[in-house]
Amino acid sequence: MNNVTKALSSVTSTATKLSGPLVYNAKVAGQIAKQVYIREGMAPPTGAQIEAAKQATLKFVQSARSTNTWKNISKDQYLKAGLVAAEAYTFFLIGEIIGRRNFVGYDVKSADDHAGHH
């Protein structure tokens, strides 16, 4: 239990040391976001805007089901769509690398590494 107490004490002291800067930085970020919100004239969407977005989405889905819609798209538009898809996929891969903290695969411990712990 002594190790648990030491670890808990260490975590508590680290959290105490970080709480001041974290709270300060959160307040600064909140103030900056508030200033941007005001300066850019941002506002939550109105009910009419939400309804218009819903109708536009439904119209898009209905037109996407029609084969004539796809026949009228130019090669440039297909190329642009492919580039946007490649960009999105690249950001996904970068997120995966950051999440794994490794370029290839996950750092999974083998069963042999755990054999001495049982």
UniProtKB/TrEMBL annotation:
Record-linked InterPro entries: ATP_synth_F0_gsu_mt
Domain of life: Eukaryota
Location(s), subcellular: Mitochondrion membrane
Pfam family, any one: ATP-synt_G
Molecular-function annotations in GO: proton transmembrane transporter activity
Keywords, in A-Z order: ATP synthesis, CF(0), Hydrogen ion transport, Ion transport, Membrane, Mitochondrion, Transport
Cellular component GO terms, alphabetical: mitochondrial membrane; proton-transporting ATP synthase complex
GO BP term (any one): proton motive force-driven ATP synthesis
Broad class of the protein's primary localization: mitochondrion
Family named by the database record: Belongs to the ATPase g subunit family.
Name listed for the protein in its UniProt record: Mitochondrial ATP synthase g subunit-domain-containing protein
Annotated organism of origin: Lobosporangium transversale
Lineage: Eukaryota, Fungi, Fungi incertae sedis, Mucoromycota, Mortierellomycotina
